[in-house]
Amino acid sequence: MDIATTTARFFLAAVIILITCRLVAMAARRLGQPPVVGEMIAGVLLGPSLLGLLFPGVQEALFPDAVRPMLYVVSHIGLVAFMFEVGHEFASQKVRGLGRPAGTISLAGVTAPLVLGVALILLMHGQVDVLNEDIPLGVSALFVGVTLAITAFPMLARIITERKLTGSRLGSLAMASGAIDDGIAWILLAVTIGLATGDPNRILVTAGGTVLFLVILYFGAKPALAWLMSRPGTAIEHLVLVTAIVLFAAAWWTDSIGLYSVFGGFCVGFIFPRGEVANRVVAAISPVTKLVFLPLFFAYSGLNTSFGLLFTVPLVLLTVACVAVAIAGKFGACWLAGRLAGEESPVAMRVGVLMNARGLMQLIALNVGLQTGIATPALFSVLVVVAIVTTVMTAPWLSLLDKRAERRQAKRDMSEAAAG
Asked: Is the residue at 63 inside a domain?
């Protein structure tokens, strides 16, 4: 297929992806789910799990192999921009007065699923053919544990805003805990990628390149961007252009040293200035990222997800076990840690529910694993199920807890009225 035909096919694929993701996202919202849930499911529907299963010829015509590298590159522009937003929002979280409970909850929320995930893979090794034999067993187990430890921080923030919990004890604690949790998990993922090479020289290049990158970013890019944002009269489009240049440079460098481009985007967002002008720059980048680029990423992930690979008893058992471990490890540990930190049971329970969602953040981590060879297509598909299930269950679970709380309050009010 020549480049002109490939380009034309890419644009057709993009049209199909954007329409499908928007329609399924609208349906998800009607069912009380965040739009990201619909977009995740839409990506899977367009892949071999449904469209390729029912109409393989149609799927091959819409998403031929020649189009997929182009889809990968374009969607990763959106990923870098999205992680930039996540990093900016992450750095904006205030943990003052919440350090002890948030630290306790986030540490438990990372440690429990990490340990359980590692233990599960070590236990089932040899019984389920799901790992890349070229990757050390410990690294594969660590990767699974890390992906189970991730929290969907952007979705958590959106749910808190939509439910008008911003500024409440629950909202502030969940945001702080989610921010710390994801920060730890992404550092562990970077370590896992470095260990996957097994080459001491490569690990040294990654470690040294990371240190150099962070030094340049903090002592060079951060003050330069702050100075630029503070200059009066600078057109917003110029600021967006400079931000894009810094983002692409960071993505290039982190990819080159084996750290993966999403880390570059996250780090730039973390050191990006605060204030009205900087917020306008982020707001200018956000719509096209979320409405155009991220659906392309969901579709790319969906094309790599084949639930048909899971139709064996061992893989079904592994999938169920991963979902159970993910929920027990994240929700159970966060709820228990919240109680031990002195939080009331309703607050601790809701924080656990919010922290349990993996969403887009886990999909990003899974794609990192797939591209670096740590995750096989079968393992990728298993963990996509975890991402979807834990994300879909969040809103109904919160609504159930709210209804139970309302019923209890109504009974108390009736008892008080009767006593009075």
From this structure: no
Per-residue pLDDT reduced to its tens digit, 206-262: 888 989 999 999 999 999 999 999 988 889 999 999 999 999 999 999 989 877 888
Residue burial 286-310, b: 16+ Cβ < 10 Å; e: rest: eeebbebbbbbbbbbbbbbbbbebb
- For the segment 125-153, what is each residue's pLDDT rounded down to a tens digit? 888 889 999 999 999 999 999 999 998 88
Domain containing residue 371? 93-285+307-376+386-419
The answer to whether the CB of 293 falls within 8 A of the CB of 81 is: yes
Asked whether residue 170 is domain-assigned, the answer is: yes
**Total structural domains within the chain:** 1
